[in-house]
Structures are given as C-alpha cells and as structure tokens.
Amino acid sequence: MGPPHVQEVPAVTTTPQAVRRASPRTRRPATPAAPEPSAGLLPQTEPVRLLDPDGTPLPPRDDYPEPPVEALREMYRRMIVGRRFDVQATALTKQGRLAVYPSARGQEACQVGAVLAVEDTDWVFPTYRESMALTARGIDPVEVLTLLRGDWHCGYDPTQVHTAPQCTPLATQCVHAAGLAYGEAYQGRDTVALAFIGDGATSEGDFHEGVNFAAVFKAPVVFFVQNNKYAISVPLSRQTAAPSLAYKGVGYGVPSEQVDGNDPVAVLAVLTRAVAHARAGHGPFLVEAHTYRMEAHTNADDASRYRDADEVEAWRDRDPVARLDTYLRARGALDDAAVAAIADEAEAYAADLRDRMNTQPTVDPLSLFDHVYAEPTPQLVEQREQVRAELAAARDEEGDA
User: Fold this and answer.
1) 354 CB-near residues (< 8 Å, 6+ apart)
2) Is 373 among the residues known to form the active site?
C-alpha cells in the first residue's frame, strides 16, 4: 500500500505590508522615533549676539529678549567704574602695593553681566580674575584686593556677601558651587550658584566632576565659562577639539549656550535665562562667552611672547564698553552729561581705592596662628609662644634704644 497522497500547497511569500493590509486587527501603533539624546542641550551653532560690534542692534529674538534699558544703563555704569578700578589695580602692582593682579580689561561685559543676572542672595564662586565682578557686586575694593596684596585671607566675609573667596587653583570652585547649590536646594532655599570658569579650567577634572554632580542631582548652578582664548599662554586649539566649550555640557546632560562675550546686551540676556532655568528647578546650565583679555595674564606675564599686536588690535575694535555706549545713546538712555558724571564717579572710586591702599596695613604677627586648627595642637601653641617671646624681646630692645 503506497503512501497517502499529499497535495502540495505552494508557498506564499508575504511582506509585512501585505500582512497589515490583510489583517487590520493586527495593526499596532507606530513606534515613535527615539528622541535625539542632545535635544534641548546643544548650544546655538553661532554665539548669541544682539548687537553688532559697532553697537547697532540686530533683529530681536524670542529666545533671548532684550533686557530692560534701565538694567543696561546700570550695566554700563558698573562697566565704566569696573574698568577704572581695573586700571588702578594694575597701577598698584607697579607701585608695589599688590603682589600680583590679573586684569579683566576687555571682559567687562562678562564680569558685570554675570553679577547683574543673579540676586544678592545667590552665591558667586569667582576665579582669581574676577576682582572687577566682585566690586560690581558691591564688595569693598580694598577687601577684594586684600588677597592679592598678600594677606592670608580673602579680605571679605563670604557669608555676608554670598561670595566665595577668589579661587586660584583651576576649577575647584566648580565642585564648591555644585555642592553649595545642592545643599541649598535640599534645604528648600531659593538659591542659585554661579561659578566663573576660565577656558583653561575646562580641561581640569574638577570642572567635569562639578558639572556631572550638578547634572545628576539637578543642582541650581550656572557654570559661566569666559573663553578669552588663552590659558595663560596656551591657545584654545591646544585645549580642546570641540566645536566650542559650550558643547562640554552636552555629555553630562546639561543644556548649554554660547554667547558673544563682548556684547553686553546678549551676555545679560543669556545669563538671565540661564539663571532662571536653574532657579526653576531644571538643574544646571552652562554658558560659554567668547571674549578676550586685553592685558597680559597677570603683571608677571609677557603676553607678546604668545600673541601678536594685530590680534590684540582686532579685539580692541570689539570693545564692549564702546559697544554699549553707542547702543544706549541711540536709545536716548545716555548722553554726554551722563557719561561725564559716570566718569567722575569712576575717578572718585579709583582715588579712594588708591588712598586707602597707600595706607600700610597693621598686621598682628600672632594672627598667623589663628584658624589653622579648631583646637591648636601642642606644637602650634609652642610655636606661637616662641613668636610672642621674640616680639616682646624686640619691643624691649627698642625701648632700651
């Protein structure tokens, strides 16, 4: 008996499209495309600018509305006073009144715009170059320069002015700012921390640790990078291959922006939005300002060894003070009389600083032992008593003479 007859059925080839057409009940919702990981994080491809270099306003933008003209006029006043302070401080180094001074001339829009964007109750974490920013914040200029004079403390009380001591080690203030901001938010306080950073500091580990911590814990921090093109003498091209430093926030999930740092209107507009973002509980924000320091790194630096005069002159044409002057005059918010009054105020400010810095400070040698330990060690007590005895012996000798 042979095998049963089996009728062969021809194979049917179907496509997914044919199955969906034949069986409508098997349809499923279309899978949405995965969101772009960098969506909402990437900065503009070109730095935000609201004024041309000559001070002519550009078309208004919805994402960065122009700050009120009153705020811009106050910004101008503080920039003028700040520049005169900077020139005076530079002169004080030549007179031996300061041990060192890092000038911020050319970066006035960044220095002043940053402190105007935050509240007095917010915290500022400066680098060694932010003396102008601290005076614009209202801190006594003599107290600001105390550290650069060679004293062992920063000169002002950080808790009273909500301003950390000026930071000489690169990028460590990023970690401090992230920690304070997280702690303030944890305790329910409405506080934003603003950390000033130089372009060279973005190559330091503390920068990345601070940004990463702030991103993970949504700490209300604004990381403000002033890219003045040189880390002392090292050009930006030797620092990074990124399109701009603003892109460094993307890897940590931090929204970022880049701005023309010599455009005072744009700087204040971008930083105002960044601070609002942090204050609203959305976490940190990173801003890179493209700017330039007109003077050397410090009075101990010879900038001619690594940049030429033509480069400096090209940036002189982008002067942020002149840019804002032109704009405010066109708006009718500034005239010759107002400019003269502000110049007089700046001269008086510099004269007062000069007079007080020319007074030799009274120093107690025994203060060297204060605040080394909460409880002085036996060795420290012994050393302090040795110094006390030497001072007493010196006074006795002077009395005998």
Assistant:
1) 88, 91, 92
2) no
